[in-house]
Specification:
Layout lengths: L2 H13 L2 H8 L3 H15 L4 E4 L2 E4 L1 H30 L3 E6 L7 H12 L4 E6 L2 H9 L5 E5 L8 E9 L1 E4 L20 E5 L4 H12 L5 E6 L2 H9 L4 E4 L13 E4 L5 E8 L6 H13 L2
Family: Belongs to the LysR transcriptional regulatory family.
Pfam family, one: LysR_substrate
Protein name: LysR substrate-binding domain-containing protein
Length: 291
């Protein structure tokens, strides 16, 4: 069997007669009849009963038509993907990011990107920086935003954003009355800390050491959003990415600047290959969303 035979059969099933199928396909009626007959010989059973020039689908014909519809839908998807690859260099795009950006910056970037590319499908993966880096290196992800503490060998990396950290303070906490948090404010204060490998945590620890300050670490976590939730629950104070705090401030979380300041630094990662047009456009949308 070949695709022309399948298309002829599908047209006869759809339009009811070989003459109407031929008109729809732009070929002759004998060509349609021949294609259907050849298909029947190929598959080994009759698709139609023929009585007085009329074609009536057999039970097997109805069953086969169901499978044909599924196959042609898949073929249409392939054609659509091929068109996107021809026009944009990719049929879809795979994006990965930190949890911190998944509920604010990334949605805005995707919304703006889709205004320009409404037919390009996006697959969004949210994971830790190391896992994302490995996926990018394995060419499983087209573009990603991660923290800067990762090993960038085997990937293309460029600076993405540097965001001044804030100190998150529980509702009703005495430090909420302070305009700017300095190291001594956090001495022996219950503290929700970032993971030990986080570069922002290491910067903060260096500042605390210089000032002889030791916060009381009660919880460690890799995610600023988790710190915000724990601080909002009254577990302690914590250093967070202020972008992540969106939504928590409205629920009572207080954010204050910290002096000396520390920053969250992020990278944009790409596989080691030439970028397609839609990857370049999504990178531009991500950069625009951070402004």
């Amino acid at each position: 069997m070949d695709i022309r035979q399948i298309e002829a059969y599908q047209a006869v099933m759809t339009y009811g007669t070989t003459s109407r199928a031929a008109e729809a396909l732009g070929i002759s009626q004998p060509a349609v009849s021949k294609a259907v007959a050849t298909l029947e010989r190929s598959i080994g059973f009759r698709l139609f009963d023929r009585e007085k020039g009329r074609l009536t689908p057999t039970a097997e014909g109805h069953l086969f038509f169901r499978e044909v519809q599924l196959s042609l839908a898949g073929l249409a998807k392939l054609r659509s993907a091929a068109a996107r690859i021809r026009d944009y260099g990719s049929g879809d795009i795979r994006l990965a990011c930190l949890s911190a950006f998944s509920t604010n910056l990334i949605p805005h970037a995707i919304a703006n990107f889709r205004k320009k590319h409404p037919h390009v499908a996006i697959s969004l993966h949210v994971a830790g920086s190391s896992a994302i880096r490995d996926m990018v290196a394995a060419h499983q992800i087209d573009i990603a935003v991660t923290a800067d503490e990762i090993d960038v060998s085997g990937v293309e990396a460029e600076p993405f954003a540097e965001i001044a950290a804030s100190v998150a303070i529980p509702p009703g906490h005495p430090l909420a009355a302070v305009d700017v948090i300095v190291p001594h404010h956090l001495h022996r204060v219950p503290f929700v800390a970032l993971s030990p490998e986080d570069t922002t945590r290491r910067e903060a620890e260096a500042i605390f050491l210089d000032h002889g300050v030791r916060p009381e670490i009660v919880v460690e976590t890799a995610y600023s959003s988790t710190i915000c939730a724990l601080v909002l629950a009254g577990v302690g104070c914590g250093i967070v990415d202020p972008i992540t705090a969106t939504g928590f401030v409205e629920r009572g979380l207080t954010l204050r600047p910290m002096k000396p300041s520390v920053s969250f630094r992020t990278l944009m990662l790409f596989p080691m290959r030439k970028k397609s047009k839609i990857v370049i456009d999504l990178a531009a949308a991500l950069k625009q969303a951070k402004i």
